[in-house]
């Protein structure tokens, strides 16, 4: 008598594991620090569950899967369990989640709700309703239930053809019977499902070429139920008493094996049949999930769908254009560019914040090319630097199918309500929605304002209390006894360390140490910290504070700056992480003490509070262009006071999102002499990044002004010199362009000149500019029409940038060790064309004080007019050999640079006679903002 062939699940499972080992090896060859992650969640501690969990963890580790067992107490509630599962759903290192059943809980927990709480993309058990639904409609690309999938693999390896075969599935459970029948159906078998209500069940089973049994009754299926030559897959596992065994029990299936093996052609044993396959397929699902995650990290091109532009003629106003386009839902854009759901915090459906965790998740990914967009010395109208940046990324992404992100500063509300207007670009190269971009956005500037003013309040309060209290009284109030206990806070312990007092017991300090700890002894004449507000308010340029009788006559002269001039804004832009931001905030110098030592935010005890106010503000903001391409809007330090660049963290996230074949284009404020120089010497020095190319935005209008043209005044009609061809005037202004090209080359950057075309320009004028730029060493010079045509008008610019990024040999202009005066001379001579820097007596004193205080190794932030290469806004063109006067100097220690003030630079703009306020209104019927632009 013939006996059925044994289908060894153990053998097949071992073969599958070996294949999975190779797959994991291949993944880690491309991503060395990547590991597939499996998390097994268990409620309670049932020993039978523990056996299965140990088996799964052992199999996972053999393959190279990082498996973790999360054991939760029996007392856990349903809400707490669902919250834990949600956390695992949001953990990018976890690719597969199993909730071990049954739940061993003291409280009522809906197991179906629990299995459906696991995200379908991590449901490696294949039990989520969505994954079950996929199987039911024949979509086998998702996660299939492990036991039924294991059955299918065993049937395939038995040699029998499923297509056309008659299959009977005994049992209709969610985990085995029902999905097994669906899988057999989609493998083209003719399937009958039997269950407890089926009549003549033995007769139905005898019709099966393939018999899959998962009924849960020990040895229910007898040999007489089996069709001769059938393949029998036994999914049951039951404990049966057996006095011949040492344990007194043995494992049996739902099929009477001894009888069935004499009838069937092939049969699975119990144990050693379907059981090992269930674990193997679980591992297969986990590796499949991890492979998808790895593929996303390695993906070169986004699954990106651009928005279609339909440019109108004549070109309408910016606000009309912006409102004519319907933006994508921001969550859709985030998904297109490779962000996970938990990395995106939605602010409505058109803007979002991006978690810094994205940097860690994408750290194994290559970095894109890094492009800085700067300009020549502008007219008061601006030359379209932001517009060119937006047009460039629209061209790269929507028209050249390259991953590209624009990184922009967040505009201040001061210019928005003043006269300059917003900074969202213009025409058909804008960020949308422009109203949200130019107004509150996500509140980052408000957070900067609050943090800045909290520190100002603490500074003045500390001076007041030191003047009105003895050392002992001050100390007792700073370290109070609460409920009989007295202890230092963390920040106070740092101050003790700074002072060299190695004590942690507040009662152990000597009277001398009381005073040393409690008294900062701030010299009011040296206070550098100003209050800020994000509107133009000229009457706050100089004020008197402390005039209330409660301040006991301790008044002083002070001033306000606009919020974006706060050092905290510069810190926000230069911080590389929360920890780095916290350290920078701690190091901010607010004043000097009477011995000449710096007093910091940490000395004032404010570091932690400032960090709390700014923790969300450190996350960049995601928006989009008119063509639906991504824009990261973050931070907005003044370019003439600070370094004028958007944040390092925005660039870091963007460089990872675009991948090694993509492009990150970021704007530097004003001309290359200010913004680009600081982008390189301050921002790139801090981040360690090396830009690949510089785009230099130029206009015929600005070059004519530098050639001696009539003044260009906002709101006034342009002189006919600017609306008619005038090659002679244009040629006289070209030296300004050539200086800016030289500035880019001084850093080893290939310079692509983008001639931002205006309607009054002529082809001859464009040709003159192109020829001069190329002769001066520009890598390329192209005419762009992105304002009127969107990305389609900047495709030639995009092509030139793509090629230029292969030519970079970036270098910094000076080393940290160079003395401060030498750094200033290097910048002035190389970037501006000056002969030398001259210090006023005040600046000379400041230089000596800052050097003595240990700030001599910091980079220099030159604060000068944006309207000229010199320190005088009235001087146009590109003069050579002039002397640049530095009036005074101060340190922004948290930001990490020394500021050299060249001339009078106001940090608080004023409103004009007729500000934009007159035009801005809210339509209360439609909810639309009117008159913004």
From TrEMBL:
Pfam families recorded: FTHFS, THF_DHG_CYH, THF_DHG_CYH_C
Major location category of this protein: cytoplasm
Ranges for domain Tetrahydrofolate dehydrogenase/cyclohydrolase NAD(P)-binding: 145-292
The name this protein goes by in its record: C-1-tetrahydrofolate synthase, cytoplasmic
Gene that specifies this protein: 106093221
Domain Tetrahydrofolate dehydrogenase/cyclohydrolase catalytic: 7-125
Catalytic activity: (6S)-5,6,7,8-tetrahydrofolate + formate + ATP = (6R)-10-formyltetrahydrofolate + ADP + phosphate; (6R)-5,10-methenyltetrahydrofolate + H2O = (6R)-10-formyltetrahydrofolate + H(+); (6R)-5,10-methylene-5,6,7,8-tetrahydrofolate + NADP(+) = (6R)-5,10-methenyltetrahydrofolate + NADPH
EC nos: 1.5.1.5, 3.5.4.9, 6.3.4.3
GO cellular component terms listed in the entry, alphabetical order: cytosol
Known pathway: One-carbon metabolism; tetrahydrofolate interconversion
Keywords: Amino-acid biosynthesis, ATP-binding, Cytoplasm, Histidine biosynthesis, Hydrolase, Ligase, Methionine biosynthesis, Multifunctional enzyme, NADP, Nucleotide-binding, One-carbon metabolism, Oxidoreductase, Purine biosynthesis
Family: In the C-terminal section; belongs to the formate--tetrahydrofolate ligase family.
Localization, UniProt: Cytoplasm
